[in-house]
Specification:
alpha/beta; Rossmann fold; five-stranded antiparallel β-sheet; about 30% strand; globular
């Protein structure tokens, strides 16, 4: 069996700010080629962890390894090959979009020919010569993503990358992420938007109150909290009576509009349908809705979400 290669590993990372334990003993393992989602409520410690990975703040204890090398010993060279988008991209307002990318290309020793290509990739070509000071928050975010892509880095770290993007531009960003990953780039991004993590990621870590709660695949996290699928039924007849029969049969059921929603174990779906049919109801339509990462997230962190954590996060 081939040895697993890790692009990012952290070993017992700890960071305190005065009396706040922002990050407590965090061990992450981001495999080469992952699209890795870093989840947690506001104040969980996500941004502080990212800043320690990038060397923008130093851990009180613990180590960060990038491609197997300890960043405390060779951090500058390692981090020079990372594409990074902060949660709030800060760009020079008096520069145009193309001037901004040319500036970053010089800093990163990237080919300036990439700049126009990247503006086109994120949909900003028509604003090429427009000053950044006139840009909307979403446009600034897209330009920030463009600078992160300069030099074709093999590791992208994106902090809340879809913040401020409308659905169209958010879709462009997701396509960029998937395209880069298909070419071997490891993507590490934090988000509180669970549906996009479920859409994009193969592995996920959940942080709460500075502690790593769980790290696994999306499917295994959802399975691990034993959430039931939802059976959504459309029937003919008295829907209220049907719900009463289902509840009497031991099924967690409710009427929502003209549909009946039943939380049911996967092997119990046929029993629900048979119970209704045996009582004279005709099943017109039914679909199964699998439990989402959002429900798993809420189940895992419980009522502790948003308490303590990271003083750098809004």
């Amino acid at each position: 069996m081939a040895k697993t290669e890790f692009t990012i590993k952290t070993n017992d990372l700890n960071k305190c700010f005065k009396n706040v334990k922002a990050v407590q003993g965090v061990n992450l393992a981001v495999r080469k080629g992952d699209v890795y989602g870093f989840l947690g409520p506001n104040g969980a410690g996500k941004t502080t962890t990212i800043k320690m990975i990038l060397g923008l703040t130093h851990p009180d204890s613990g180590n960060v390894f990038i491609n197997g090398k300890n960043t405390s010993k060779s951090g500058v060279d390692l981090r020079a090959r990372i594409g990074y988008l902060p949660e709030r991209a800060q760009l020079y307002k008096n520069l145009t979009a193309i001037q901004t990318l040319n500036f970053f290309a010089e800093l990163r020793k990237a080919d300036k020919k990439e700049c126009d290509e990247l503006l086109n990739k994120v949909g900003l070509t028509q604003w090429r010569d427009t000053k950044v000071g006139t840009f909307s928050k979403g446009m600034v975010q897209l330009l920030g993503i463009s600078q992160a892509l300069l030099g074709d880095p093999k590791l992208l770290i994106l902090d809340e990358p879809t913040s401020g993007l409308d659905p169209r531009w958010s879709r462009i960003l997701k396509d960029v992420i998937l395209e880069k990953n298909s070419k071997g780039t490891t993507i590490f991004f934090s988000s509180h938007l669970l549906f996009e993590v479920q859409e994009l990621c193969n592995r996920v870590a959940i942080l709460n109150k500075g502690k790593l709660i769980i790290e696994d695949t999306v499917d295994k996290i959802s399975e691990g909290v034993h959430l039931k699928p939802q059976l959504i039924l459309t029937i003919s007849g008295d829907t209220k009576a049907a719900v009463k029969i289902l509840k009497k049969g031991g099924f967690d059921s409710q009427l929502v509009g003209d549909q009946i929603k039943v939380l049911v174990e996967p092997d119990q779906k046929a029993k629900v349908l048979n119970l209704l049919e045996d009582n004279g109801f005709v099943i017109q339509d039914f679909i199964t809705k699998e439990p989402s990462l959002e429900k798993a997230f809420i189940e895992i962190i419980g009522d502790e979400a948003g308490v303590g954590g990271d003083i750098n996060e809004a």
